[in-house]
Amino acid sequence: MQFLKLVGKAREGWQTLAFALREICKADPKTCVVLATLVLVQGILPALSIAISSSVISNFAVGHVTEASALILSLQWAGALALYHLLSPWILFLQSNLADRSVFMVNDAIIKKASAIQELGPFEDPAFHNDLKLIQAQSAHKPLNLVVTLVGLVKDGLVSLSCLALLFSSISWIAVLVIACTYAQCRIFARIHQNSWKESLGRSQESRRMNYLASLSIQKECAKEIRCFNMGPFLQREHQQLFKTVHNRVVPFRLKQVATSYLPLILTILGGFCVFFYVVRSAVHGELSIGAIALLLQSLAQLHLSVGAFSEEYGWMNGHLLFFKKYREFLQSSHGAQPKTPSQPLRTVKLRRGGHPFIQFQDVSFSYPCGKQAISNISLEIHAGQRIALVGPNGSGKSTFIKLLCGFYRAEKGVILIRGKPLDTIPLEKWRAEISPVFQDFFQYALSLRQNIVMGNEVGDQTVDRVLSQVDLSLDSTEGHDQLLEQTFGGTDLSKGQWQKVALARALYKDAPLYLLDEPNSFLDPLSEAEVFKQFAALSAAKTVVFITHRLGSVKLADQVVLLDQGRMTDVGTHQELVTRSKLYNSLYTTQAAQYFSPEQQFAEKVDACTKNTSIKDLVDLQFDPFNQAQGQRAI
Question: Rounded to two decimals, what is the model's pTM?
Answer without folding.
Answer: 0.62
